[in-house]
């Protein structure tokens, strides 16, 4: 759910028509009951230089929401597509940037993004949707850099999925081989995922208990 103070006139003044372009806001992510953070999403997801945007948008959706774009560019990219509910925007940005749309940002925070525990991006099934977006990149693109970025991102998502399966096997007290096999498949993920996977492979019971406690604290902090 979002709320904000951004106005149409501000958005349009920041949109620079083509060859092609889009204007994205700089936003605060805020949870009800908590103080407004000092850092904006731009600090976490900076806009890459123009020559790096094609691979950058595949590695991370730095565009965010509430974006002003040309209708001509939107239609030329094919608009929103079915089959990726919750990630339609990312799928669209990837195709628009591939066609030459340059992403530009506002020079100050203009949007307040309210985050809650039932946000769409918090759903466990969203990882499968993100994987589908990346598979479409591999199917649609013939650019080596873009394909490599998609393969790397897809590999990280799959590693995270294997780690979740390892935790689930440990929680069900399955034979040691169950969680260990899934954990070994997650060792190629990001450093944190790889470290967790190693702990599950070595001591699945202890790692699962500690993981459950950490997730419970994290969930409590999001309420």
Quick tags:
alpha+beta; 4 strands; 223 residues; globular; 10 helices; disordered N terminus
Structure explained in plain terms:
With 223 residues, the chain is of the alpha+beta class. It is built from ten helices and four strands, in the order βαβααβααβααααα. It has helices spanning 8-14, 41-44, 53-59, 71-76, 88-98, 126-140, 144-171, 177-185, 191-202, 204-222; strands spanning 3-4, 21-30, 68-69, 102-114. It has a four-stranded mixed sheet with strand order 1-4-2-3. α3 packs parallel to α7 (144-171) and α7 runs parallel beside α9. The two termini are 15 Å apart.
Uncertain residue segments? 1-19, 218-223
Main sheet: which strands, in order across? 1-4-2-3
Q: Structural class, judged by helices and strands?
A: alpha+beta
Roughly what is the average pLDDT, rounded to an integer? 74
- CA(first)-CA(last) distance: 15 Å
Shape: globular
What level of helicity do the residues show? 40-55%
The number of helices is 10
- The percent range for strand residues is 5-15%
Q: How many strand segments?
A: 4
Order of helices and strands: EHEHHEHHEHHHHH
Largest sheet: 4 strands, mixed
Tell me the radius of gyration. Answer: 20 Å
């Amino acid at each position: 759910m979002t709320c904000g103070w951004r106005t149409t006139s501000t958005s349009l003044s920041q949109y620079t028509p083509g060859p092609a372009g889009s204007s994205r806001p700089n936003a605060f992510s805020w949870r009800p009951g908590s103080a407004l953070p000092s850092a904006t999403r731009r600090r976490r997801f900076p806009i890459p230089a123009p020559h790096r945007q094609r691979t950058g948008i595949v590695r991370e959706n730095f565009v965010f929401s509430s974006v002003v774009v040309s209708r001509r560019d939107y239609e030329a990219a094919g608009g929103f597509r079915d089959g990726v509910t919750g990630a339609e925007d990312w799928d669209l940005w990837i195709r628009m940037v591939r066609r030459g749309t340059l992403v530009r940002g506002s020079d100050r925070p203009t949007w307040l993004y309210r985050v809650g525990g039932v946000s769409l991006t918090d759903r466990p099934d969203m990882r499968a949707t993100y994987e589908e977006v990346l598979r479409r990149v591999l199917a649609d693109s013939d650019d080596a850099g873009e394909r490599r970025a998609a393969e790397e991102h897809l590999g990280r998502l799959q590693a995270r999925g294997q780690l979740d399966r390892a935790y689930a096997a440990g929680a069900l007290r399955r034979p040691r081989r169950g969680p260990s096999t899934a954990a070994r498949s997650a060792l190629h993920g990001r450093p944190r995922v790889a470290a967790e996977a190693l702990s599950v492979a070595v001591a699945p019971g202890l790692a699962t208990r500690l993981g459950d406690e950490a997730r419970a604290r994290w969930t409590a902090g999001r309420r």
